[in-house]
Amino acid sequence: MGKLRLYNSRTKKKETFFAQGRRIGIYVCGITPYSVTHLGHAFTYTFFDVLGRFLRHEGYRTTYVQNLTDVDDDILKRAREEKKDWRELGEENAQKFLDDTAWLGSIPPDMYPRATDHIAEIITYTKKLLHTGIAYEKGGSVYFEVRKDQPYGSLSRLSYRQMLALANERGNNPKDPNKKDSLDFVLWQKKKSSEPSWASPFGSGRPGWHIECSAMATKYLGNAVDIHGGGGDLIFPHHESEEAQSRVANGKQFARWWMHAGMLKYRGEKMSKSLGNLVLVEDLKKRYTASAVRIYLLSHPYRSSFEYFEQDMDKAKVLDMIFQQVWRAQSALGEPILVSKYESMFYHALHDDMDTPKALRVMEQVAQEAVKAKNKKNITSAKALLSTAFNILGLRITYR
Ligand SMILES: [Zn+2]
């Protein structure tokens, strides 16, 4: 077994991965089901699925937790606009997401906690932060005082001004008169009329976004998560704030590895509901196999953002067809084709910060050699290697 090196967004470099205990705790921020999920979401969750599969293949045991942010500003806003019950809206979109993920062949998380089931834990967490003195209560809301936390900003490495600008884009209210500083973020927000609320020692209200993940991650994985992942757009303010409040509440570093997947673009812009430039898994389903879509996603380095072009999906479809030909190809009794070189190249690629594009290229070579040698040589070792690769990458034999 070679050494697995993973890029850590916290230190901004590749570091040799090591386990802390018998199990590796992986927490990946799940979706906020306020609208349909798209191929960009599929990219993130497919990558973390493959990471989990590979870690298990390497002999680790994993506990993979992926939450559902089922109460938040976006859901409530969208529900009001669509005149729908916020819970119903969340359920519909969460179900669609689960259907897409299942179709893509991802292994379901070990735990799939939803924020609304963890209000008690969130309240306890908030109380803990009040107790440390870093949080303050004002007008029925509770805030995290950013200026009091010296390391705040160290994950995103942004200046105060950059942080404030980004936070404002993502739901921060800099003019909230209860705040000591515009960048302070909410842990508990006072009930607004018509919004759902829960009773708490600070008054009726609902949790802030970041504290939900801290509470759920800590509950299921303890105070130090081994790998915390999500889409790259979550680094600030979500992960920065999660990290700060967990570190302060528990007195230790929250996540050992922070890992982030790149963003998908379409027609020159980041894929987003508001711009309407979405590529949906449910549309791709009609034209491609799940393995072709996975190959497409995994043929991009996980940390880079990239643009969706249909011709790339067609290329992935061709590669899937080459792979599938191997399963149909008959082996002969003759001399075996040698795959040990490819095998080590395949693992070497994955050990190098999960270089799935390279791993796929190596498997393409194996498949091509095997197809060429069918009926002439013994290709069983090529088939065996390809089977292992299929398991790690989550690809399916469709035999066509
Ligand atoms: Zn989160």
What is the secondary structure topology, with strand pairs?
Blueprint: E1 5-8, E2 13-16, E3 23-28, H1 39-57, E4 61-66, H2 73-82, H3 86-103, H4 119-132, E5 135-138, E6 141-144, H5 160-169, E7 185-190, E8 205-207, H6 209-221, E9 225-231, H7 235-250, E10 255-261, E11 264-266, E12 269-270, H8 281-284, H9 290-298, E13 306-307, H10 310-328, H11 340-351, H12 356-373, H13 380-393
Parallel strand pairs: 3-4, 3-9, 9-10, 11-13
Antiparallel strand pairs: 1-2, 5-6, 6-7, 7-8, 11-12
Helix pairs in contact: 4-6, 6-7, 9-10, 10-12, 11-12, 12-13
Describe this structure in words.
This protein is an alpha/beta fold and 400 residues long. It folds into two domains: 13-266, 3-Layer(aba) Sandwich (Rossmann fold); 290-296 and 308-393, Four Helix Bundle (Hemerythrin (Met), subunit A) (Up-down Bundle), CATH 1.20.120. It has helices at residues 39-57, 73-82, 86-103, 119-132, 160-169, 209-221, 235-250, 281-284, 290-298, 310-328, 340-351, 356-373, 380-393; strands at 5-8, 13-16, 23-28, 61-66, 135-138, 141-144, 185-190, 205-207, 225-231, 255-261, 264-266, 269-270, 306-307. The strands form four sheets. It has a four-stranded parallel β-sheet with strand order 4-3-9-10. A four-stranded antiparallel β-sheet has the order 5-6-7-8. It has a three-stranded mixed β-sheet with strand order 12-11-13, covered by helices on one side. Strand 5 and strand 6 form a beta hairpin. Helix 11 (340-351) packs antiparallel against helix 12 and helix 12 (356-373) packs antiparallel against helix 13. The radius of gyration is 23 Å and the shape is elongated. Zinc ion (ZN) binds at residues 29, 213, 238.
